[in-house]
Amino acid sequence: MICLREGVRGAEILLCRRATRAGDPWSGHVGLPGGRVEDGDRDALDTAARETLEEVGFDPRRHGSILGVLEPLTPRSFAIVISAYVAHITDPVELTLSDEIATAWWTPFADLELVSAEVAEAPTRVSAYRLPYADAADVVVWGITYRLLDRLFGIIKERDPDE
């Protein structure tokens, strides 16, 4: 779930640092709330909303509105399909983190700096967004989350070329 809200400095996005866990390929990475389909989920939106509630403590459908869904993404290294929904959060929400999330923060779009970064998991430098005011100086958003944000920013630029 891509959760957006209006902040003091403009649009903000909710980003999370996943907890470090053995066997988790995204362990310690910065990403978005989300997870796998479970029995009882009616559809991908239900999964995304449930995972957001479980991981960060609020249901985006109750505290805002769903704006739409990005084109599904198939990662290069995993046999999965990712459906990323975009929510506009209009109510004040308190983040209550699950044990799957080490930390989470609202980041102004203006603070996302496009960089070429070195990450331990990749053999070459990768395109990424650096987060200068997150929980550490070396925080970058790369991989699947970078690709999702790149798609989102592409849609925003198509709709408002002056942004």
Strand content: 25-35%
Q: Uncertain spans, ≥5 residues at pLDDT below 50?
A: none
CATH architecture: Alpha-Beta Complex
What sort of overall outline do the alpha carbons produce when their principal axes are compared? Answer: globular
Question: Terminal Cα separation, in Å?
Answer: 23 Å
Helix content: 10-25%
Q: Say what the CATH topology is.
A: Nucleoside Triphosphate Pyrophosphohydrolase
* Annotation, overall tally of beta strands: 9
Give the CATH H-level superfamily: Nucleoside Triphosphate Pyrophosphohydrolase
Number of helices: 2
Return the domain count: 1
The CATH class is: Alpha Beta
Plain-language structure description:
With 163 residues, the chain is of the alpha+beta class. The chain has one domain (2-159): Nucleoside Triphosphate Pyrophosphohydrolase (Alpha-Beta Complex), CATH 3.90.79.10. The chain has helices at 44-56, 143-159; strands spanning 2-7, 10-18, 30-31, 64-69, 85-89, 101-108, 113-117, 126-130, 140-141. Strands 1, 2, 3, 4, 5 and 6 form a six-stranded mixed β-sheet that branches. A three-stranded antiparallel β-sheet has the order 7-8-9. Strand 1 (2-7) and strand 2 form a beta hairpin. The two termini are 23 Å apart. 26% of the residues are buried.
